[in-house]
Amino acid sequence: MKYLFYFIFGVSLTANAQFNQKLISEKLTLPPQTKIEETICQIGKSFLGTPYEGGTLEGPEEKLVCKLDAFDCYTFVENVLAISLTKHSQNPTFENYIDKLIRLRYRNGNIDGYTSRIHYFAEWAKLAQAQKILVDMTPAFGEKMIKPINFMGTHRAYYPSFKTDNKIHAEVLQMEKKLEKYTFYYIKKENFSTYEAGIKNGDIIAFTSNVAGLDVNHEGFAIWQNGKLKLMHASLEQKKVIISDETLLEYMNRIKKHSGVMVLRVNQPLG
User: Fold this and answer.
1) Is 234 helix (H, G, I), strand (E, B) or coil?
2) N or C terminus of the chain: which is more exposed, having fewer CB within 10 Å?
3) 129 or 60, which is more confident?
């Protein structure tokens, strides 16, 4: 683990890494919670008000980005989950958090170029389930998502990393081809009310997309407040991490490009 730490950050910590280490240490010393879902809500709430910033994982070369002073919806969920899992582990350290972040973000926990990073939420969920980190609750209630997932490959102009790089574009196409082996499910928004009561605090909610080729538009955590199901997420609209004023269903119905949801439940770690 020490080797991993020095490999990522070098012999001496950068100012950014020092900030991250201090912040993670603060999160790991928050009062312990018995259940992982309680910890997810605790850690998520501790980031309320943190600014929204998109594209923080993109750069001229693929390397681990550990940024905790701003999030998009994806990095918020990923970091809260990594911190929460670390807090419930037998080794609640910054180095362990880094290890968990890599294993969540990169296929087989291996950083090896742009397409080693997991770019589609649907695949991210499948691979996290294979690691026994979470379980996809959606197949029990929803229906199959019948659509090819190929938005990146068919919209390369949106992605600076392979806008003009044919080699990486070919790797993206190959990555998307492999997604065909998976079966994905979603709960249609018109059916959501039937299953809403079964959603628990800390469940990961991913909003499936009406956009051709795209699996998910947005994600966050379910949180119940005063008997109403809300969404804790990094909001592009409000430019910060929030717990929504509107209910999760109201939010989903308001955003026309949302077709429904995937619901993922984090497994209680064994230690």
Assistant:
1) strand
2) C
3) 129
CA distance 11 to 14: 9
Phi then psi for 91, rounded to 5 degrees? -135, 70
**Residue of 89, 74, 73, 72 whose CA lies nearest to 24:** 89
**Whole-angstrom Cα distance, residue 62 to residue 185?**
30
Which residue bears the tokens 């209630």?
A: 141
CB 37 within 8 A of CB 266: yes
CA distance 259 to 211: 9
Domain 134-266: give its CATH code: 2.30.260.10
Structure tokens at 260: 């429904």
Q: Residues 91-142: pLDDT tens digits? A: 999 999 999 999 999 999 999 999 999 999 999 999 999 999 999 999 999 9
Fold classification of 2-130 is Putative xylanase fold (1.10.3670)
Percent of the chain exceeding pLDDT 70 equals: 93
Q: How many Cα atoms within 13 Å fall on the side-chain side of residue 156?
A: 15
Find all residues with CB under 8 Å of 98, minimum gap 6, and list them.
Answer: 4, 5, 8, 64, 66
